[in-house]
Amino acid sequence: MPVYEYTALDDKGKTTSGIIDADGAPAARQRLRSSGIFPVSIKETQEIAEKKAPRTFDLSRFFTRIKPAETAMMTRQLATLISAGFPLVSALDALLPQTKSHGYKRILAKIKNSIVEGNSFAQALSQYPSTFSQLYVNMVRAGETSGTLEIVLDRLADITEKQEDLKNRIQTALAYPIFMCIIGILVLFVLLTYIVPSITSIFTEMNQVLPAPTRILIFLSNFFRLYWWIILGALLAAAVILHRIKKTEKGRYWFAKTTLSLPAFGVLARKLAVARFTRTLGSLLENGVSMLIALEIVKNIAGNQLIAETVENAAKEVSKGQGLGDALSQGRTFPPLSIQMIQVGEQSGELEAMLNKVADVFEKEVETSILRLTSYLEPLMILLMGSIVGFIVLSICLPIFEMNQLIR
Q1: Alpha-carbon span 151 to 124, nearest angstrom
Q2: CATH number for the domain whose boundaries are 67-160
Q3: Does the 163-408 domain belong in CATH 3.40.50.10420?
Q4: What percent of the chain is predicted at pLDDT more than 90?
Q5: 9: β partners
Q6: pLDDT tens across 236-266, in order?
């Protein structure tokens, strides 16, 4: 059934817009009029599957991208409606008017139409891989198969909300240091390119040997003032080259290895990746997905090539009858604590609960470590900025002191 976008006037004369599905444009207009809305314009939405769309640069994608928080909210609402006894199609119909995002409303309408045509919910979701991940689709498929769709949707909402909550807490903790760093760089750039040259020009006209700090300051000031565009270009080129390297197999492996080997940050990246892996794997196993299929789904969830390789090798060992904890320990990528907890979960028959516990422990450790690091970064940045400003002041004052001594 086609989906139409419309602009209309309500009974109070206010302009409203939305989407509606109907057999044709006349039927869509009739449905709108019967609901007290008078259509001004109506056009059919182009039915283009996301996964078949060509990969061209489109700036609008950055502004219309579906946020994970919207997916979590929709999933929670859908689970509530299904738990209340609504059929799936009726539940999607009830969600459409409440969805504020125009792009999400369009996707939901197409998903509903796909289900009406005879496809399963999972098949309909799989047409939009950029909005619904492989994890999401497979968990929905497991819920449909087992008849526990509302429970699976609730768990999916929990997973998405926890991941977004953790990401928001980390971003909040890092916001102040990053803001201070940007402001500090801008202040130093203005000092070196505008303020310092106007002051040091007096010293250069004196035709005297200047102190070493002053000569260094004048050199840096001239360099940044004349070649700032080269520095900016080099940084942009480095970012582009790094992005291209990350797209290659060897580049991803090198980047993953470098990330995990960094002091302090590497430990946090490892724990965060393991937490994401264990939480996802635990949720899949809880919803009836077999171990081997679950490992195949989550091997790339961690976002690190080394960990993905470890999980892939572990899946081969598990298929031969080895335990998950022993198989993961062979890669020497997972922290020992996570291996021990997984092994305990296997021995006690509570592997799913233990995997979720591993995720809770490591997420808490990551958050605590980041808060501790940011508390160290703030005074360190203040000290660094104070030292740089002190060097600039000293470089300017030294020639003045020498001039005073010559006058005496």
Answers
A1: 19
A2: 1.20.81.30
A3: no
A4: 8
A5: 15, 38
A6: 999 999 888 888 878 878 888 888 888 878 8
